[in-house]
Design goal:
Length: 387
């Protein structure tokens, strides 16, 4: 979302940020972008008043749940606003992969139309444009679910990449140890750390007696805190204040993700920090092929450990993989590659909004039924709370 905010600001738009969530210690400081923040209350007409006062030309929904909650209010208060859904990643895909892992010990393609699948696909239809962070997920939506391609726009994480390699000063000899990172409210990260601790780290530690594995992440649960065992080379560090600075002191990042969706920010951050990584096909999805990965892609736990040990000990291999990471970022994730096309797409959609909606018959039908039911449920809750 911060990437999108920075992009839109560069187009010259004035931005307002509205949220139903209270600010907390990890909230981004939007004051530095000169962005006013509006606190929205669910199921009250106060939200309508706020929307009318802003009267936006474009509305971005942060994930499908936000569209479900506020889509009808946008249609009612500012019907001419272009509605853009930012999926972040496909939530139903991540959930289906998690469930298949529990049942079969391997990740399979989603087959059934779960409740979350239906909700997320419906939100895509109800919006005028949906931002997709992964090309792999665009393929899933268009091939497996027949979502019209013209409703989707590919916008991955984007960076200014021209001077990346010169910004990273630390090479192989200046680094040591392994690290993993992830927000522990996100289930794939918790699974990743527990899997690594039980099945991969003992193998690495047995070959590299002095090596350590440092675990970073916000919202540490007790089961992760209990992994802090210096005698086994495991140190739980907690939240990293500055991700790239933290990463750039380590030899390798380990990310054996067994389920998930979208692009894995930790893997791209590792490339930016010049830190090769070992991950799984899930971790590499949408970023690069295994052949060109800046480190190694391995699904088998034993191969994962062996690859990590090899990279940790081989300076020439490590250095070449570091450079591969910079090249992937320059080629596929540079901000200049997407900025003009994104701006032109928003302008064009705004210009032809009526015709776009007339062609999206399924979306108009879903808006009619969903928004009416959501609206009257919300109004009922508001009246109930008054009394």
């Amino acid at each position: 979302m911060l990437h999108i905010i920075q992009l839109i600001k560069s187009f010259g738009y004035k931005i307002h940020f509205a949220t139903a969530n209270p600010k907390n210690e990890f909230s981004a400081n939007l004051n530095e972008f000169e962005i006013p923040v509006h606190q929205l209350a669910l199921n009250t007409s106060q939200a309508n008043d706020t929307l009318k006062s802003i009267n936006p030309n474009i509305v971005f929904f942060d994930r499908f749940i936000t569209e479900e909650q506020f889509g009808w209010r946008i249609d009612e208060c500012c019907s001419d606003a272009l509605k853009v859904l930012d999926t972040e990643d496909l939530h139903f895909l991540r959930e289906a992969r998690e469930q298949s892992l529990k049942v079969t010990s391997e990740v399979t393609k989603p087959i059934k139309l779960s409740e979350k699948t239906k909700r997320e696909l419906a939100a895509i239809y109800r919006c005028d444009l949906t931002l997709m962070i992964s090309q792999a997920e665009i393929d899933i939506l268009t091939k497996d679910y027949d979502i019209p391609k013209n409703l989707l726009f590919y916008l991955p994480f984007v960076y200014r990449t021209k001077s990346l390699s010169s910004q990273v000063s630390s090479g192989f000899s200046a680094r040591s140890h392994f690290m993993s990172i992830g927000n522990f409210k996100h289930k794939p990260n918790l699974d990743m750390v527990m899997f690594l601790y039980k099945t991969i780290w003992p193998n690495i530690r047995s070959k590299l007696k002095d090596a350590q594995w440092h675990i970073y992440g916000a919202y540490l649960p007790e089961q992760v805190r209990q992994l802090h065992q210096p005698q086994k080379g495991v140190l739980v560090k907690g939240r990293a204040e500055e991700v790239l600075t933290t990463m750039s002191s380590y030899s390798l990042m380990l990310a054996p993700l067994r389920f998930g969706a979208g692009l894995k920010g930790k893997c791209l951050d590792a490339m930016r920090a010049g830190t090769p990584s070992v991950t799984t096909p899930i971790g590499a999805e949408g970023i690069s092929s295994a052949e060109h990965w800046p480190g190694c892609v391995a699904e088998d736990a034993e191969l994962f450990a062996d690859s990590a040990i090899k990279l940790y000990q081989n300076e020439n291999l490590w250095t070449s993989k570091q450079q591969q990471g910079f090249e992937i970022l320059r080629k596929n994730f540079d901000i200049e590659t997407y900025s003009k096309d994104f701006q032109a797409t928003l302008t064009e959609r705004l210009k032809h909004l009526d015709s776009i909606r007339q062609q999206n018959i399924v979306g108009e039908l879903l808006k009619h039924h969903h928004h009416r039911s959501t609206k009257f449920m919300s109004l009922w809750i508001e009246e109930k709370n008054k009394n």
